[in-house]
Amino acid sequence: MTDDYEIKLLGPGDAKVMETLLTVFAEVFEDPQAYQSAPPQRAYLDRLLDQETFIALVATDGDRTVAGLTAYVLEKFEQERREIYIYDLAVLVSHRRQGIATALIRTLQEVAADKNAYVIFVQADLADAPAIALYAKLGTMETVNHFDFAVRPRN
After folding, report:
1. Which CATH class is domain 6-138?
2. Exposure pattern of 140-149 as b/e (b: 16+ CB <10 Å)?
3. Is residue 57 exposed (0-12), middle (13-18) or buried (19+ Cβ within 10 Å)?
4. pLDDT of 121-133, one tens digit each?
5. Is the distance from CB of 136 to CB of 124 less than 8 angstroms?
6. Does the pLDDT value for residue 84 go beyond 50?
7. Residue 72: what are its φ and ψ, rounded to 5°?
8. Residue 72, strand partner residues
9. What is the C-alpha separation between 15 and 122, in angstroms, rounded?
């Protein structure tokens, strides 16, 4: 279903493409403050994209970024293995229901195999029915609680 789209794994030198993905996230999540108010320098993005522990995938339609995901590789301590956490996944409204999110996750599964990961996991807000439906179609659901702990600056 994604014949018109190309899925690409970003690496060093792809900072400009990563910037376009930040724009997609800002639009889809309706959060320009988080994704565009203090954009990282291209050198920072290139360093990030060069790290073994960071994964960024984009879906492009021609030269336009229409979707993408970011994920982190977590080295486990209890066994010599890795998990991958999907941090963000977004598809522009105009390009939904075309299999792009599924293609991104399937591509991430291939990347995960190359990185010797044994599982990929993701969180979804309870109110985000489309995300929950997608993830339930592709994986196994676990019900958990999520807690945030504020980090206080040292004085």
Report:
1. alpha beta
2. eeeeeeeeee
3. buried
4. 998 888 877 888 8
5. no
6. yes
7. -120, 140
8. 54, 85
9. 24
The tokens describing 92, both together, are 């522009």
Mapped onto helix, strand or coil, the DSSP state of residue 93 is helix
Which of 51, 87, 88, 50 is closest to 67 using CA atoms? 88
| Run of H or E including 33 | helix 32-36
Both tokens assigned to 150? 């504020």
Angle between helices 42-49 and 15-28 (to 10 degrees): 100
Using one digit for the tens of pLDDT, what is the confidence trace for 15-64?
999 999 999 999 999 999 999 999 999 999 999 999 999 999 999 999 99
Would you kindly state where each structural domain of the chain is located, as residue ranges? 6-138
CB 53 within 8 A of CB 72: yes
Question: What global pTM score does this model have?
Answer: 0.88
